[in-house]
Description:
0% of the residues lie in helices and 16% in strands. The protein is built from no helices and 4 strands. The strands form 2 sheets. Strands 1-4 form a two-stranded antiparallel sheet. A two-stranded antiparallel sheet has the order 2-3. The protein is globular and about 35 Å long. The protein starts with 8 loop residues before the first strand and ends in a 31-residue tail after the last strand.
Amino acid sequence: GRLCVGTKIVVAAADLVAKSPANPLEQAPGTLLRLHGNSTRRARWDARLGFSASMPCFPTALRSVRADGGNVA
């Protein structure tokens, strides 16, 4: 599936990519958040936005894991 504006997603195991050490709470030039397709799912329409202390498991069939999809969470 594809994402569009307004789609809520649940993300696990995202990487902060920076050219030099950076504070994750500050936006430095050249800092990116890398999402992995195997660790990202659509959230329910009524899901609350923001950080969740209880990270849900992503039950998934092995056939849906993509070789080029990055980390599996």
